[in-house]
Every structure is written in C-alpha cells, then in structure tokens.
Design a protein that fits this description.
single chain; 471 residues; alpha/beta; D-Maltodextrin-Binding Protein, domain 2; 2 domains; 20 helices; 12% strand
C-alpha cells in the first residue's frame, strides 16, 4: 500500500511542478480535485468467467471517440459486441476532446471511456495528478476475451503497457493502435521519375532536385501542426547519433538539443527549404490539406503515421500506390541502420476515475482487444492494433502492407520517443514551433537548436527533481 501512495505522490509532485499544461487546461484542472460523487457510481456486477471485471449488466455505458484519422465506425461496431452481454452504449464523436471533456472532468461527471487523442488531446499527466484517471491494471490482469488462459497483458505487443505508464507501474492510458511512422510516398510517382526511395541525404536531395525539374515539390507537411515533422525527424536524429540522443531529449537533459546529431538533422531538413524543395504554401496548411496536395501528386514525400491511408481514402487516387519507408539517413557514418523507425502503441484511451461505470469502461476496452474488434479495426481504418498477431492472414491495403513490412524489417531498431506524452505542450507547441519557424525560413538551424534547448531547459526547471526519465 505504501508503494502505491509513493507512486501516486510522485506523479502529483511531478505534474504539479510541471507548469506545462495549456492555459485553458490549467485553469480548468486547477479546480478539479475532489470533483465527482462516488454515490453516483453504478453498483458492481457479479464476478464470473464471462464477467471478470464485475460489470453491472444492466448499467449503461458512455464512450467518447476522437473523430480523426480513424473515424468512429470501429467503436460503434465494438459497442454491438459489448451490448451482447451488457447494457446500452451511448456514443459521442468529436474532434474537440479537451473542449468537450475537460469541463466534464472538472464537474466530476465524465463519460466512462474517452479516446484522448488529436490536436486537443488532454495532458494526461496533469489529470493523473488530480486523481482523475483510473488505473487500468485490473483490465490488464483480466483474462483475454478469446483465450481465458491468457491475461490481457499477455496478448499485447511489446511496449504497449509501458507507453501508458507515468512514473510507476500503474497504467493510465491504453494505446490501442500500433502506429508506424515514416516518410510516405507514391510508388508510381517515384517510378515515373525513375528513382528509388533515397537512403542517404545526398540521395534525397538528388531525388527532390529531379522532381523540381518536373514541377513537383519534394516535400509537404502539416504546417499548422509542425509536430508532424517529428515523425521523421526524431528517428533521423537517432540514426545519426544513436538512441541515447533521443533518451537525453526525453529526459530534458542539459544540452541534449545541442548534440551534433540534432544540428546535422536540422541542417539537413533546412536544406529542403533552402533549395526550394518544399511545396509552396506548406507552412500555412493543416494535415488534411497537406495530405490532399500529396495525393494530387504535387509533392513526393509526406511525414506521417500509418493512420494516413484511412484519413486520405477519399482523396487518394486508385492507382496512387501508397507506400512508406524509414526516415532517410544522413550517410554511412550513421550510428543506426537505415531500417530504424519510430513505431509504438498509440491512439490513447482512458477511463476517468470519476466515471459512473468504471468497470464497464474497462470491459469495453477488453472487447476492443478481442480478435473480432481488433481485426475489424484493421479492416476499417487500415491500421494495426497493439494485439499480437491480430492482422495475421488479413488482406491489408497497400500502405499498411508497406508499414507492416517496414516494422518487421526494423527488428530491434525501433525508437519510442517519450517527449510527446511526457511533455505534450513542449513537444507540440514549443519544439514543433521552433522547427516550423526554421522550415518556413524565418530562423536558421542554429537558432532553432538554441530555441529548442531553451524551451527544454525551462521545462526541466518547471518539472523539478521528479520529472519523468528513462532509467
């Protein structure tokens, strides 16, 4: 019991000292402690082999889904599976997760499951410090839906559980999708230029130069959401300098951003701008607009995650030949091989601690981790899940086939940066903003490095001694 208190206290001290929450979020969270009324919670059901989490079979359930790249049909399909054994599910979809959900958390009347994703993703570390998020360990220790002899935790891909931990053994975020990040492109587009995907930066510049002569930009990206650049930039930094560079950045170590690998990576990406290889107007467009321009063949390369195939299905031509490859390396001096990628469990779900039906929320997630729902998710949205082997034998779309092959080729050369979830505002707004300004040509790579380090140093001071760290 003492260990549990110490872990929770550590999280509270860390987040309270952090001061990294978005202004609107901070104002709302500050009065959230103590909200909610336990008497409003539904009574537990009777525990059985079919109901290991003691769900009240007559109680309703409320689920809120982020309506982004994955849509929400996979969730409504899971509702039907849940309702075979339990109560009706009230469904809501929105892109305004923070705007819609934060007030409900403050009032102590949140839904039972929240898909905490998207541009308005809530800072889960701050919510944990306010005792607003349920520990999902009971779910992980419950028998899996398809094989009662296996616990849920034993059916998950490596790294899934760790991704939801914040300073202890408790798991507060459950990341359902298994996302592979990389540089997306059209196979026919490269074939038309008579080039192969570039493995070194000199080759990348040569391909972009050839495309420019044909009136095609080398790159486009989500200028309004510059953290998308991290999907290729972070693994690029790791390739150049090794995985410890990323760990130092995650740990907010002094001078981590001043590492030579970061400087080289920034200089390389800035060269795309300097040579005119970035699609005109890119700094002012969002992810949907950049993807649409890419689908129209106006740019060769796009930094993104494996949700992009589903998100662009309305604009992708039938003969587009979507594919993905690891970040292009720098040269033969790289510390890690070309096959190195960033891949991880993503698309986080949480069960609010003050929810009326916490047991039902966990059971809904258990349903999602069953083979039926996992395969349905992959079929509907062209994305892998965190469930081991769920996609085996399935007929995958071209982009997902490429992503799956890239993941297998990486082997153990997979990095999982934690800055995006340990320090969400720093990652998205501060670091992302400095990179965006550099890519727009407004500051030099050296100035971008300087700004990134300054932002990280301020975050480190705010976090104090209890900030999250790699061991």
């Amino acid at each position: 019991m003492g260990t549990e208190v110490n872990r929770r206290d550590l999280i509270k001290r860390s987040a309270a000292a952090g001061a990294l929450a978005l202004p609107a979020m901070g104002a709302l969270s500050s009065c959230a402690t103590g909200g909610g009324n336990d008497s409003e919670k539904v009574e537990k059901g009777e525990k059985s082999a079919k109901n290991p989490l003691e769900v009240n079979e007559k109680a309703g359930l409320s689920v809120v889904i982020f309506n982004g790249g994955y849509g929400d049909e996979y969730a409504t399909d899971a509702h039907k599976v849940y309702e075979r054994s339990f109560g009706k599910v009230k469904h809501e979809r929105t892109q305004k997760i923070r705007t819609r959900m934060q007030p409900l958390l403050v009032k102590g009347n949140p839904p039972d499951v929240i898909n905490n994703s998207g541009a308005e993703q809530m800072d889960v570390a701050s919510l944990i410090s306010k005792d607003q998020v349920a520990d999902l360990t009971p779910l992980l220790d419950a028998p899996s839906l398809d094989d009662p002899d296996k616990k849920v935790r034993d059916t998950l891909l490596p790294g899934t559980i760790e991704k939801g931990q914040f300073g202890g053994e408790e798991v507060y975020h459950f990341n359902y999708s298994y996302t592979v990040y990389g540089t997306w492109y059209s196979k026919p587009a490269l074939e038309k230029l008579e080039v192969e995907y570039p493995k070194t930066w000199d080759e990348m510049l040569a391909v972009c130069a050839k495309a420019k002569k044909e009136g095609i930009a080398g790159w486009t990206y989500a200028g309004k959401h510059p953290y998308y650049f991290a999907f290729t930039l972070y693994p690029f930094i790791a390739k150049i300098g090794g995985p410890d560079v990323i760990k130092a950045i995650d740990n907010l170590e002094p001078n981590a951003w001043r590492h030579d690998a970061v400087k080289k990576a920034f200089e390389a990406y800035h060269e795309l701008y300097a040579k005119g290889y970035v699609l005109k107007g890119t700094p002012g467009i969002d992810h949907i607009q950049s993807q649409t321009q890419w689908n129209k063949g106006r740019a060769l390369f796009l930094p993104n995650g494996s949700w992009v195939e589903n998100e662009t299905k309305k604009t992708t031509p039938k003969e587009f030949g979507m594919a993905v490859a690891p970040s292009t390396g720098l040269d033969k001096s790289d510390a890690m091989p070309f096959e190195t990628i960033w891949a991880e469990a993503s698309e986080p779900f949480m069960v609010p601690a003050q929810a009326k039906n916490v047991q039902g929320g966990m059971e809904w997630l258990r349903v999602m981790l069953g083979k039926e729902s996992a395969q349905n998710f992959t079929k509907l949205v062209s994305a892998l899940t965190c469930v081991k082997g769920a996609a085996d034998g399935m007929d995958l779309m071209p982009g997902l086939t490429a992503a799956n092959g890239m993941h297998k080729a990486a082997g153990e050369n997979i990095i999982v940066p934690r800055l995006p979830d340990w320090h969400i505002e720093l990652h998205k707004d501060r670091i992302g903003g400095a990179i965006a300004t550099m890519m727009a040509g407004d500051i030099s790579p050296a100035e971008a490095v300087k700004q990134c380090q300054q932002h990280a140093d301020r975050a480190a001071k705010a976090d104090g001694a209890d900030k999250y760290k790699h061991a």
